Amino acid sequence: MTGKQDALAELDDVGLVFEALSHAARRQILLVLQARGDTMGSKEIAERFSTTWATVSRHLQTLEAAGLVATVPSG
C-alpha cells in the first residue's frame, strides 16, 4: 500500500471505532466489561441491561468489528 492508502485505511478503522462508541448501550457494555475485568457471556450482559440477547449480540458484533472487544464462542 501507498502512504495515502495506509492513511485512508487507518481513517476507516477510526471511523469504525467512532461508530461503535456512538451508541450509549455499547459504551455501557464496554464499561461493564472493563469493570468486571473478566469475560462475560452475552446472556449475562443482556440480563444486566434488561435487553434481549439478540440486541446485545448485535452490539458486541459492532464492538468487535471496531477492535474494541474480542468474542469467544462458547460450547
Salient structural properties:
mainly alpha; elongated; 75 residues
Summarize, please:
The protein has helices at 3-21, 24-36, 42-49, 53-65. With 75 residues, it is mostly helical.
Write structural notes for this entry:
- The protein is an all-alpha fold.
- It has one domain (3-65).
- Helix content is 71%, strand content 0%.
- The protein is built from four helices and no strands.
Give, in order, the helices and strands: HHHH
Summed over residues and divided by their number, the pLDDT gives a mean of: 86
Q: What oligomeric assembly is this protein in? A: single chain
The amount of helix comes to: over 70%
Radius of gyration from the alpha-carbon trace, in angstroms: 14 Å
List how many beta strands DSSP finds.
0
Number of continuous helical runs: 4
Strand content: under 5%
Instruction: State the end-to-end CA separation.
Output: 40 Å
* Class computed from helices, strands and strand pairing: mainly alpha
Number of domains: 1
**What best-fitting shape do the alpha-carbon axes yield?**
elongated
Q: Which runs of at least 5 residues are low in confidence (pLDDT < 50)?
A: none
The largest sheet, given as strand count, sense and whether it forms a barrel, is: none
